[in-house]
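The records we work with from here on pair a chain with its fold. These numbers are not coordinates but entries in a learned vocabulary of local backbone shapes. To see the layout at work, look at the sequence and tokens printed below:
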Amino acid sequence: MAVFATEAGVRLRVQVDDVAVASGALVEACIAEAHERVLGMLDGSVDLEAPPEAVVQGETVLCGAILFGALASGDGVD
């Protein structure tokens, strides 16, 4: 199953477009974590193939928070 957020969408939303600050791999890992959390909270009636825009945006914002947490803790720094 595909995730709802995209790397480009996350970078745009949180204004972290420099790959030296946050690598693509780090952003993708944060998206995967956010997706797992969102799936755990969704009602079974939500269409996972075409989720509502609010779900997509929620996953994007959650991913941004996870990304900032990783960067703040140093996990995202080489």
In short: The mean pLDDT is 92. DSSP finds three helices and no strands in the chain. The two ends are 30 Å apart (CA to CA).
